[in-house]
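Workshop exercise sheet. Pairs work together: one partner reads the sequence aloud, the other fills in the structure field after running the prediction. Swap roles for the next sheet.
Pair: D.N. / O.F.
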Amino acid sequence: MDAATETPAAVDAPQVSFPTPNATSTILYTTCLKGLGFIKVNWASYGRSNRDTCSSGRPPSQLSNTKCHQQKSLRIMSDRCNGMSSCAVPVENSVFYDPCPGTYKYLDLSYTCHSVKRSVTCENNQNAISCAKGSLFIHHANYGRRDRLTCPHKLAKTSHCYHSQTDNLRGRCNGKKSCQLHASNAVFSDPCHGVNKYLEVTYSCTQSSLIVLCHNGIEGKRYAECEGETGHLSCGWGFIKVISASYGRSNRDTCSSGRPPSQLSNTQCHQHQSLRIMSDRCNGMSSCAVPVTNSVFSDPCVGTYKYLDISYTCHPAKRSVTCEHNQNVISCDTGSLFIHHANYGRRDLLTCPHEHATTPNCYHSQTDYLRGRCNRKTSCQLNASNTVFSDPCRGVNKYLEVTYSCTPSSRPDHLYRRPHTAVDQDR
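Structure field:
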């Protein structure tokens, strides 16, 4: 059993309903009105970044900690809401966990409504998504269960089974005309034993080309590099943002010269961690070089000759580097901060020279964390310290690198905050 729906083009105006708090929690509703597409959570922070928001009637002791941020806020909200036309999330510690006991918290959230198609494939069924024109781009995918009405079944006994497959399906489907989907534990593993699941995918059809110029002037590039070579990403201006990456093989033609058919026949080969690996190594840099080898990506399909299929954009942004045990401030003369990428570790041996700069392969993304602390402020204090970010590579001297930009300070209508309730403070 499967289904697909398509929404028209014109989006980005979500409507919000604020219910009266009940005895246990406040429920936050995110909604895209009918015809405006599906939710894409851009940013989320459960905690407190100032003393004023949701402060009425609260003692100073519950408002003083303004560096409170649950680092998994974006993932939690994305798991629950991305790809849906509406969703409801209790703003409480039982959902987000408590990042700072004793502090009265709120959820700060921004999202947009995207005009896309949606496909649902019930467990143990197959489906295909395709484009009459252009090629596929996957926005969101989840294998699990987020409501009890979709794919009705006697074992549909929870609506909280989240198992993101976005990166996996981007690697398998992006850039193709059509893509076969098989909703099975054998393909995606079983995220919730004993629960009947389904695969939901939101996607759109894009015009594919190797080099494009986006509507806002951001340069986008896509290319393939064969196994054994080195992939070079570079921006003549700005900094790299990896959009999609797949190390494996999705067709018989790419990087096929001189190879026997036995090394080209597996076209379902994809290393699921490709996007994370390339993002860790390249995001926020003006150029980077990555060996296209099993030693970097590990081997997703032994005996198959592979290649790296990657797309990335070049973003105009500022860059800040703070050496370990030092402090720094990023600020905007006009507008407010937006963090594009942040890493605490070491990605080269020349930045912040030190006798313990012994590896360029120390990756510890702090993007979500610094977005929670710095986004929409005019300035933000940075402290490059293990006590703040933990130690991702012991014995190595590290630095905090941040790429950011200054955006107009006006607050969009779809950005809002809701508090948790007094009941939550005692949990």
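Discussion prompt: The chain has nine helices and 24 strands. What would you look at next?
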